[in-house]
Amino acid sequence: MKEFWTKNWKKALLWLSGYLSIIAFAVVGGYIIVRSEDQDLRRSAKTCFIVVLIFAAIDAFVLILNNILGLSYSGGFADFLRWFDFFETLARVAVFAVFTVMALVGGGQRAGQPEQGTPAKEETESEDQPKE
Q1: Tens digit of each residue's pLDDT, the chain (132 residues)
Q2: Where are the domains of the chain?
Q3: Sign of the four-CA dihedral 95, 5, 26, 20
Q4: How far is CA 63 from the centre of its chain?
Q5: Which residues, other chains included, contact 19 with Cβ-Cβ below 8 Å and sequence gap of 6+?
C-alpha cells in the first residue's frame, strides 16, 4: 500500500498551515525544520516562512495605518486602505494557492534532473587511456 503522507502532501500541508495562521505554521513549519531529514522539505518550510513573514509585515503596516486613521478621519485614505487590504487578501490567496498546487504537482522538478546539492556525474576519460 502506498504511503499517503508523501513529500508533496507534506509540502501542501505546510503551505496550507501558512495560509491559515502564523501559529499553525509555527507548529508545522517548526516541526519540519527541526525534525525533518529531507532537505527539500526543509527548504520549502524556509520559503513558506519568508512568505508568511512578508504577509505578516504587510498586515502590520496596514494595521498601523488604520490606527493612525482612527485619530483623524479621511474618507479618501480610508477607501485607499480598504482597497489595499482587499488586494493584499487576493494576493495572499493567490500566492498560497499557487505554492500549494506546485507542492502537490511536484514542485517543478523534471524527471531526469539531479536534485540540487547532488553533483551531476561527469563523464571522464578512463584511467587506462594515455593522456596527451
Answers
A1: 467 778 888 899 999 999 999 999 999 999 998 988 889 999 999 999 999 999 999 999 988 888 887 766 677 888 888 899 999 999 999 999 999 999 989 854 443 345 555 555 554 555 556 555
A2: 7-105
A3: positive
A4: 23
A5: 92, 93, 96, 100
Query: Of 83, 81, 79, which Cα lies nearest the Cα of 67?
Result: 81
The runs of H, that is alpha helices, within 1-132 are: 7-20, 22-35, 39-71, 75-105
CB atoms closer than 10 angstroms to residue 44: 24
Q: Is the pTM of this model over 0.70?
A: yes
| Coil, helix or strand at residue 122 | coil
Amino acid in the structure at residue 102: M
Which amino acid is it at 10? K
Does residue 45 contact residue 33 with C-beta atoms inside 8 Å? yes
Residue 22's identity, in one-letter code, is I
Joined together, the cell numbers standing for residue 39 give 532537505
Query: Between vectors from CA 87 to CA 83 and to CA 91, what angle results, nearest 5°?
Result: 170
